[in-house]
Amino acid sequence: xxxxxxxxxxxxxxxxxxxxxxxxxxxxxxxxxxxxxxxxxxxxxxxxxxxxxxxxxxxxxxxxxxxxxxxxxxxxxxxxxxxxxxxxxxxxxxxxxxxxxxxxxxxxxxxxxxxxxxxxxxxxxxxxxxxxxxxxxxxxxxxxxxxxxxxxxxxxxxxxxxxxxxxxxxxxxxxxxxxxxxxxxxxxxxxxxxxxxxxxxxxxxxxxxxxxxxxxxxxxxxxxxxxxxxxxxxxxxxxxxxxxxxxxxxxxxxxxxxxxxxxxxxxxxxxxxxxxxxxxxxxxxxxxxxxxxxxxxxxxxxxxxxxxxxxxxxxxxxxxxxxxxxxxxxxxxxxxxxxxx
Length: 341
Ligand SMILES: NC(=O)c1ccc[n+]([C@@H]2O[C@H](COP(=O)([O-])OP(=O)(O)OC[C@H]3O[C@@H](n4cnc5c(N)ncnc54)[C@H](OP(=O)(O)O)[C@@H]3O)[C@@H](O)[C@H]2O)c1
What we know:
This is Zinc-type alcohol dehydrogenase-like protein. The chain is of the alpha/beta class and 341 residues long. 28% of the residues lie in helices and 26% in strands. The strands form three sheets. Strands 3, 5, 6, 7, 8, 15 and 16 form a seven-stranded mixed sheet that branches. The chain is globular.
């Protein structure tokens, strides 16, 4: 089958950073779906896994990246009951397994759901990783009510115009009924976050606590930080309300000064979208369930998909372009690739 993969971890300008390959089609294990991949989305995690490593590692078998896909089930494992051949599914999958830059991919059935009825494969592929991250961050980690019991409380979403932020704004607004303050640094990204449902926009190029004071909201109940954790931590500690909650998704490079949160008894929590699959947690089927909720919310027009660009086909050349765009740190919404040559 066709695939795009790598043997060496190289800067994206190197031709060999992503290669067109032919590899063997995998066989499903008992709990797996074998999916004919029709469309994929790219995420910063792809570029982080692809990026040069301190040791010049050379893989003996190709490393296949990609953790956002939509496609058609072509075979199922012996223990799979809720899916069958012909089902149209979408999923983020498992970072410890080969990714979706391949014509066929295996995914544990507990991590997948049927795509929204009203959407094609490209629109569906834009949804899983960012929706799962945003849902888990808001409702599982920050423990905000998804049924409106926290209505009227405030959330600051830092880095809100990107893939995760675009879904987080929508979920915080439509399900939790929060007052959403989003950060964006450019006219285009500011416009986008307002379109997604933010009530206020502040600029993350300035300290966000000062920006909040300037708009008359000096403290917020929740903060979801989707960008440089080290950069924003001191301002987040200032801006969080006493007993408020902060969730981050991006690795810190320096030790975090958590003691800044002690006077306020504020909570700090991580969200890592691959925790459930990587550790096969007892509740890993929650990811399939979350994607079922997302499909329903898209079908009833509570949520919109966040595709900002779609290119064809899925190839090394187009994936190198997509990675280059993601590495600018200025992507709005989601980049999708569809079809095989
Ligand atoms: N832990 C997890 O499970 C998990 C899951 C998904 C993503 N992530 C991580 O979360 C981050 C965001 O992911 P994404 O898919 O949303 O990325 P993305 O689509 O590439 O996000 C781009 C956005 O980030 C904003 N931005 C850039 N630098 C910023 C800064 N210093 N402070 C605040 N905002 C900044 C930009 O806004 P402007 O253009 O307005 O400047 C841009 O719109 C990535 O690092 C990704 O690896 C983690």
